[in-house]
Write a structure and sequence with these properties.
The protein is of the alpha+beta class. The protein is 38% helix and 17% strand.
Amino acid sequence: MPTIYARHDRRIPRTRRIRRTTVLTLAAAVAATGFLATAPAAQAAPPTPVSAATARLYLGQLTVRAEGSSSGYSRALFPHWTTQYGACNTREVVLHRDGRNVVQNASCAATGGTWYSEYDGATWSAASDVDIDHVVALAEAWRSGASGWTTARRQAFANDLTRPQLIAVTDRVNQAKSDLDPAEWLPPRPSYRCVYARMWVQVKHHYGLTVDTAEKNALTSVLGGC
């Protein structure tokens, strides 16, 4: 029979006591690291997009429509780089997530680290050389249906850390991309184009945005080679 310990006039088997102690220890450990719920650990990449097969399925479900007008568009209509936790806004969260050995000051600004740009394969050691790209650009979203959204929905889109919509890349590459769709621009690094197409389709599918014919054809071609 197991050894019996007396506690508060109750007899508790030693095996149960060990299990209870283990549970309490784990609970204490979780409580001690509770800050991780507000400051997620770096993963050095955006969220993994859906598979190529799922992206092809999603692409077939998107409404094909001629791209709308840019009339009335302004970046201010998509409030972005909002506060995520503490002093950290969306840009700083993505810099921390997508970088390696990122050091942040008390204001959450990145003061050290390295960033590998998936679009062109370049590595940077200064945050000033890195832009946070909206995979589906804000102006592209506006022309694809976001012009009819509420400001709150546009804000959620512009700061979306759950979908693969934000990624740290070389600033000049992001500027060259501008608000172009995949029929007009693809990452200069060919090996990333499949991932990029999966990201693009997942974001448009989630937000119910439309695609034009040329855009769909380009995505179909890329995804066909994944």
